[in-house]
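We modelled the chain as a single entity of 432 amino acids. Its sequence is:
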Amino acid sequence: MHFSFQHKFFLLAFLLSFSFALCVSSQSVKQLEEQRKQTLQQLEITNKLLNETKQSQKSSLNKLTILDKSIKERTRLVNTMNKEIEQLDIEMKKLAQEKAELEKKLQQLKNDYARLVQEAYINRSIYSKIMFVLSAETFDQSIRRLRYLKEYSDYRKMQVKEIERVEKEIQQKNDSLAAHKQTLAQVVKQKEIETKKLSEEKKKENVVLNDLKKKEKNLRSEITAQQKKANELNKRIEYLIAEEIRKAEAKKKAEEKLRQESAKGTSKKTAKEKSAEQAKLAAAAALTKEEALLSDNFESNKGRLPWPVANGFISGHFGIQQHPVLKYVTTNNKGIYIQTTANTNARAVFDGTVTQRFAVPGSNNAVIIQHGEYRTVYANLTEIFVTVGQKVKAKQPIGRIYTDRDKDNKTELYFQLWKSKTLLDPEPWLAH
């Protein structure tokens, strides 16, 4: 009898260990599935952008940029699906193995129970049970035999419950296997579709690339014109930010001078004058504390800031970048370019105060928002929704991004990040 209870304990431990292993493995599949869904959502945006370029049959840098982004995303999608298929296959094999082990254990349980039933049938008479107890040589032995009969009966009931539980577990494995097979079939089918689309997009990209290479002279002229506009915009932004900082520093110096003069002439002033001056200084100090707190909060959210658009992708990275067509041509971006769909609004990436709204010929409108020591710049806006001095919240719309109808409906935001007078790469600050 002792052996049977031990056997039951090890069986339960065995089943629990398998259940835990399945849970851990399933998490991996779920993660891959979520990754696949996120990539598909991003592809939807890219496909929408590609559809917007179809109005023009001409090859363009914008079309090449979007195709390149789509190819990278679809490649990532296919790779994710390959991993998902591999993981599903591993889990299905594990499930099949677990099911086989359970069926083996179930058969063993049924055989054990059959022997118990047979023994019970042989010794079924109440008389034999009574004689078994009364034939004991001592009273203690009689008690032990009674206890044995009760444990024997309880064990039979436990065996029935265990058989039912294992049968239920086997059914769950069957259901899981069926679900995995269905998911696997869907992923395999989707992979075939995406692989075909990937091949088609690569062909389109090659056509566009070859067409653009034939227009090298025009491309160089276009780059020169764009770089000139960008330089003018960057100079204007740099000047405005420098002026803001200069004025802020001058204000602080004036406040400090006032504080020193106040300390010298304290004895000569009336109580009313002293009170008014102290209130003024306190207000200035409170503002400084507020700005410092905003700076700290902004900095602590590095890598978690919302994007300045609801949907889109980085079409131009920060710093020196190789031209996608011209081999020996590079561009030096002072911010990042984020391409999105037509009629999209730019939005604030963090709480702050609007300090500038201005226009530069050829670059449309721009807005600067201060976040304590930090500032963000949003350029290429056709409309501005905010005013200078206005407090804004994170994700609040601040303007409509310009859509260039002459360039495949290109809708692109120019975004900068500054810490005091230092220009930063905004990309690491945005949520991934």
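As a brief sanity check on the tokenised model: The longest strand covers residues 374-384. Residues 1-26, 281-287 have pLDDT under 50 and may be disordered.
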